[in-house]
Amino acid sequence: xGFDHEDFALNAEQRQRLGYQLIDRINAYFSSLTHLPVQPPxxxxxxxxxxxxxxxFGQDAAHVLDDLCTQMIEQGFHTPSAxxxxxxxxxxxxxxxLAEALVAALxxxxxxxxxxxLASRIExxxxxxxxxxxxxxxxxxxxxxxxxxxxxxxxxxLALALTHxxxxxxxxxxxxxxAQPVFYASAEAHHSIEKSLGLLGVGRxxxxxxxxxxxxxxxxxxxxxxxxxxKAAGLLPLCVIATAGTTSSGAIDPLPEIANLxxxxxxxxHVDAAYAGALALTxxxxxxxxxxxxxxxxxxxxxxxxxxxxxxxxMLTRHPxxxxxxxxxxxxxxxxxxxxxxxxxxxxxxxxxxxxxxxxLWLTLRVHGRLAYEQMIGQQLALASSLxxxxxxxxxxxxxVPCALTILNLRxxxxxxxxxxxxxxxxxxxxxxxxxxxxGLYWFSTTRVRGQSLLRLMIIxxxxxxxxxxxxxxxxxxxxxxxxxxxxxxxTQP
Length: 494
Ligand SMILES: Cc1ncc(COP(=O)(O)O)c(C=O)c1O
Description:
Blueprint: H1 5-9, H2 12-32, H3 61-74, H4 94-106, H5 118-134, E1 143-147, H6 150-165, H7 169-172, E2 181-186, H8 192-200, E3 207-210, H9 220-232, E4 236-243, H10 255-265, E5 268-272, E6 297-300, H11 302-305, E7 313-317, H12 323-327, H13 359-368, H14 370-393, E8 397-401, E9 407-412, H15 413-417, H16 422-439, E10 445-449, E11 452-458, H17 466-486
Helix pairs in contact: 2-3, 4-13, 6-8, 14-17, 16-17
The protein binds pyridoxal-5'-phosphate.
The site of pyridoxal-5'-phosphate (PLP) has 15 residues, from helix 6.
């Protein structure tokens, strides 16, 4: 039996029917977001791994698609839900969903300009829009690329920092450095920094974790002291990674002071603004990022606070001339350089095959405009303030770290009242989270900041409204009482 192209492409009638079938399910899913539980209750979760054997022969497409949608929706874990208060995973805009379908259908390969043309131009235009909002207005003075996320963006930026100081390291390797470069980030910075330094070959130990203050921001006095100590020890301070929007608390490191220190000591400044970089799209809250325009490189993840589906990260740099020496390469099977106004993407980034991760943001901005983000971010900041006010009013929780953006760090008040030790407090927090998340409606996490266990609640889905906050506060208040009782804590009260 031969292969017919319609085996994979299907015919026009089938494509339309299956497309409508899928769109109907997605449509219903979007309509359900305001009341959708994040996941089924614990007792109804399907613990069995999906164990279908590799099929030699296909089955009816409508049936398989329907079954898949039902399973993924009924058994899924739904970060787009209004009841998701978890990590930095947003509800995607509907225009982004449509853009993703178009990208999958057209499948542009953005490695080279000649073979992608408009797609690469849209990508460059979208980067230019973000760069402008950072304050980098001249496209010839900045460059970068879309990435698979913050991890790749941080990795790429740290590679640039090395090229800046050691132009030959890409060819000669780290043995050619004759120095031990040192990197600095706060104790609250994301683990992708360590991962990147390990993979770049300078070693995870080349990262100095600088203490964070009570606001979970990098302590710049400690940073300055550490740089001085390292210089005195004959090491080579090379780069500071400031965070704008820490993973646990949303804290923004003091960017102007860190930029001053970098200027003074001649260090590369990378700002990991994977989360809070979204503020650059607002006029009202842009001031919270003041100083970011002095960075040498920046990470921003549209798949965090800009409501994009995975994957969409961005790395920007003020030193576009460093991109080619870091990432450029020639081999016989790679087309020669474009010689156009835009460089080929494969020469300025870590990827070769390049998916068009920019279209979803471009289309969302074209259809809704920047001001829609301004309003969404303003609303989410207001909801976070309301959550803070209402949860503190219950008397069951205290704030562990001041709320900088849309992340709340809470501790159970009973832990303070009874002077519980950290392991018992952590146990209590896990119990509160377990009780609530086992029910399935809500999801949020626990974490540690400055050695303290805490509950972490984040407003990230644009479908979250005041009514969800009010209901969550009531559930948290009850869970705090139930958990303390279940752990027998009240018995120890004097
Ligand atoms: C501050 C920060 N930087 C970087 C990352 C890594 O981003 P990604 O998951 O997109 O690779 C994260 C992820 O949460 C983050 O919070």
